[in-house]
Amino acid sequence: MALYAAAASVLAGVEERRGSVRALVYSSGFQNVKPLYALVCETQRFAAVLDAVIARAGLLRAEKKLRPHLAKVLVYELLLGKGFRGGGGRWKALMDRHQARLKAELARLKVQRHVSRNEDLLEAESKPGLAPKVPRYVRVNTLKTCTDDAVDYFKRKGFSYQGRASSLEDLRALEGKHFLLDPLLPELLVFPAQTDLHDHPLYLAGHLLLQDKASCLPAMLLAPPPGSQVMDACAAPGNKTSHLAALLKNQGKIFAFDLDAKRLATMATLLARAGVSCCELAEGDFLAVSPSDPRYAQVQYILLDPSCSGSGMLSRQLEDPAVAPSEERLRALAGFQLRALRHALKFPALQRLVYSTCSLCQEENEDVIQEALQESSGAFRLAPTLPSWPHRGLNTFPGAEHCLRASPETTLTGGFFIAVIERAEVASSAPQDEALAQLTPSSAARRKKRRKAASGPGLNLLPCS
Q1: Across the strands, what pairs with 180?
Q2: What is the DSSP letter of 392?
Q3: Residue 285 to residues 133, 232, 289, 321: CA-CA distances in angstroms?
Q4: Which residue among 81, 230, 268, 269 has the highest number of C-beta atoms inside a 10 angstrom radius?
Q5: Main-chain phi, psi angles of 156, to 5 degrees
Q6: Lowest-pLDDT choice from 101-115, 135-149, 220-234, 356-370
């Protein structure tokens, strides 16, 4: 039914801050706005419950073409609404295939939360104006230690290790001194949201980095092998750079650029503390770096995380969630982002690039990717990425579903956007499960791994030429 597609579109628009529910409903072109408005509001109200049921039932993994917002609307109608309207058409047939599993997961959720009514499942996080609590993500710095040793340390300090998480609901349920291993990143530990580790000795010594899960994805998806040459185009404050160095095992070279001298100095301190010895920092404008410079002739991997509106950052959402970037500011940012992406694609040896922002705005994300790919005349393409990730790019051009989005509601992270771009004549990257298998050490390797103090950092502050 058109009603469900329209509701999903409005939900996506609200998340992208394109307007209020009422404004988007009335501008949707849908003839009967009253049921549309009611359906959107009720789906929003139960968003956290619906996300939990969908994740636990594995609906988006089973139905890979089903978009997250539409799934949420359909599951609401099936489980919490008055049933499918007008017979439901093909959507009812699709949901019937998963009805038993979805109802079982809803019932299990009620048992776990000791409630009997659907209304009782509503938590504070689903009330208007309050974002879901995002867990505390802690990346283990594999240049200095290993995940097993970090887990053992926290267990000795009285924390209870719950193993590898299997769903978002596992992460939502974290409380007290319990912690988990993230289901996707093998070096990412997950603690309850209120856990404060800023003064923890392992953090101060560079063994741990406090980094949101979404912010860890760009380096993981760029996946440069040890020994390769990498460019981090807009590098400060350095968390992603240190992650790249860990993936490289300090073997190879990272050329990192940033215009802000103070941020670069802070970054140098972070990298030194993390034991990074393969990074060359340059204070200067990435756009002024010549792709024909022989120093960068072997750069095959580029991470581009340009300045953005930051509309996905949790701190900004909490400060004033109603304030969206002005159109003028968005145009200026998108213009810079497009210039940076065009420039990055000119490096002759480039094989893979990851573009990321902490913005929710289409202008800074899908629109930038679409224009850059059109201008490349087929030389580059979007690579299929993490097919089981629940939140995909907005459907603004063919292939946009290969992009990733993240938000507190759908992925329990900060708001983020990621696109993986590859040179077209190169065979597409290995299947995602194969890539992840390479990222996850075998049990034998983990047993052999021991914490090692990193050798002295070799950071060279060079002028950009």
Answers
A1: 190
A2: B
A3: 37, 12, 7, 32
A4: 230
A5: -65, -25
A6: 101-115
Domain range summary for the chain, segments of one domain joined by +: 2-126, 136-210, 213-435
Q: How far apart are CA 110 and CA 287, in angstroms?
A: 54
Asked whether this chain's domains 136-210 and 213-435 adopt the same fold, the reply is no
Q: Which of 358, 361, 403, 464 is catalytic?
A: 358
Cα–Cα distance, 190 to 175 (Å, whole number)? 11
Q: Are 350 and 291 in contact (CB under 8 A)?
A: no
pTM for this entry: 0.69
Per-residue CA distances from 2 to 28, 90, 98, 344, 401 (Å): 11, 11, 21, 41, 21
Within 10 angstroms of residue 114's Cβ, the number of other Cβ atoms is 7
Active site residue 358: yes
Angstrom distances, CA of residue 316 to CA of 52, 212, 241, 292: 25, 15, 24, 39
Residues pairing with 255 in the sheet: 231, 280
Mean pLDDT, the chain, rounded, equals 85
Q: What is the mean pLDDT of residues 262-285?
A: 94
Q: Assign 376 a pLDDT band (cuts: 50, 70, 90).
A: very high
Instruction: Show the tokens assigned to 266.
Output: 């802070």
- Of the given ranges (12-16, 25-29, 45-49, 101-105), which has the lowest mean pLDDT? 12-16
Q: Please name the fold of domain 213-435.
A: Rossmann fold (3.40.50)
Instruction: Specify the 3-state DSSP secondary structure of 143.
Output: coil
With beta carbons less than 8 A apart as the criterion, state whether 62 and 55 touch: no
